[in-house]
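RECORD TYPE: inverse folding
INPUT: structure tokens
STRUCTURE:
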């Protein structure tokens, strides 16, 4: 399977999560469904987690990374999914799928406000367009749509925090962080469901379906996306994966027969344009990298990974590696290597 096909399949599986969850909400309560979805993701990631442990061994996280992982689990694994499912109860899956585009905008704004990132003029236009489009989409469903959109916006803010905290963790791969997030968050939400008695009303068949949706939409989707990003690069893979909410909307409006209004179409077009602006936003200034040691997928032709490997200059691979101090200038995004405070004279196209 080509890298583009992997990224597209990852987007399709992730986009199908909202329509599939909408169907399951008719038979499962939000806390129970959220727990099952994330437990399914943990099951899907378990083989990758075990393979990493066998290959690299276990590496103890420092106190800061452990705090970040815990915060990411609470925000992105426990609170965010439940807010989304309560919002999905009040609106169509097509509408909610389109509103999920606000996660990218929330991540960008939280990065500026709380994590020292910088957003260019083009990026701010993209953020503004996403929020305006979200208002158009939510208004198509009246007051229930407004209440639903507020819950979805809150969920996206939780995932925005999750994105920043997870990206700043040293010594853990995306597969491992997804495994722990799914296992712990899934167990906690299932415990809440057990206390409320909702777990007793679920049939084994429906529970199995929810675990399957979680394994595919939140587990296999992540594995496929990471595999695509290793070949395409994170930026191009993210551009393909950004189609996920639109694919989810197509499933909801097309296959499930949910009503579609002119505001949905107008909002979707504005969302697409705004995401192009946001994803193409980058800035350039002189910056310094402090010495660090961590594990993540990387290449040796990106200007950051200067350690020697025979025959791996253009191939992406994963292992524990060390960075020496480095100062340079190039266009960049707030990724794992660029979470520094920005100077006022940075260029903002």
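DESIGNED SEQUENCE:
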């Amino acid at each position: 399977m080509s890298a583009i096909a992997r990224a597209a399949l990852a987007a399709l599986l992730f986009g199908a999560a909202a329509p599939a969850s909408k169907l399951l909400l008719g038979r499962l309560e939000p806390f129970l469904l959220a727990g099952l979805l994330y437990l399914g993701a943990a099951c899907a990631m378990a083989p990758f987690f075990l393979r990493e442990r066998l290959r690299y061994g276990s590496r103890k996280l420092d106190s800061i990374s452990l705090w970040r992982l815990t915060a990411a689990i609470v925000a992105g694994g426990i609170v965010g999914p439940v807010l989304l499912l309560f919002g999905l109860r009040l609106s169509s899956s097509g509408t909610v799928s389109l509103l999920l585009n606000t996660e990218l905008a929330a991540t960008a704004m939280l990065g500026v406000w709380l994590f020292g990132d910088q957003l260019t003029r083009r990026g701010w236009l993209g953020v503004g367009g996403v929020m305006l489009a979200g208002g158009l989409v939510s208004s198509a469903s009246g007051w229930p749509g407004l209440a639903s959109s507020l819950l979805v916006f809150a969920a996206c803010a939780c995932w925005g925090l999750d994105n920043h905290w997870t990206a700043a963790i040293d010594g853990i791969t995306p597969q491992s962080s997804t495994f722990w997030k799914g296992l712990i968050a899934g167990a906690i939400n299932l415990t809440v469901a057990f206390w409320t008695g909702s777990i007793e009303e679920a049939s084994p068949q429906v529970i199995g379906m929810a675990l399957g949706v979680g394994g595919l939409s939140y587990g296999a989707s992540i594995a496929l996306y990471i595999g695509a990003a290793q070949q395409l690069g994170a930026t191009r893979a993210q551009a393909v994966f950004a189609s996920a909410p639109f694919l989810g909307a197509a499933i909801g409006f097309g296959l499930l027969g949910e009503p579609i209004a002119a505001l949905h179409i107008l909002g979707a077009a504005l969302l697409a344009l705004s995401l192009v602006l946001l994803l193409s936003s980058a800035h350039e200034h002189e910056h310094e990298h402090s010495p660090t040691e961590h594990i993540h997928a990387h290449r040796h032709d990106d200007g950051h990974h200067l350690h020697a490997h025979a025959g791996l200059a253009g191939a992406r691979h994963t292992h524990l590696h060390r960075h020496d101090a480095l100062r340079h200038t190039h266009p960049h995004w707030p990724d794992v290597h660029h979470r520094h405070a920005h100077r006022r004279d940075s260029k903002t196209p």
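NOTES: The longest helix spans residues 204-232.
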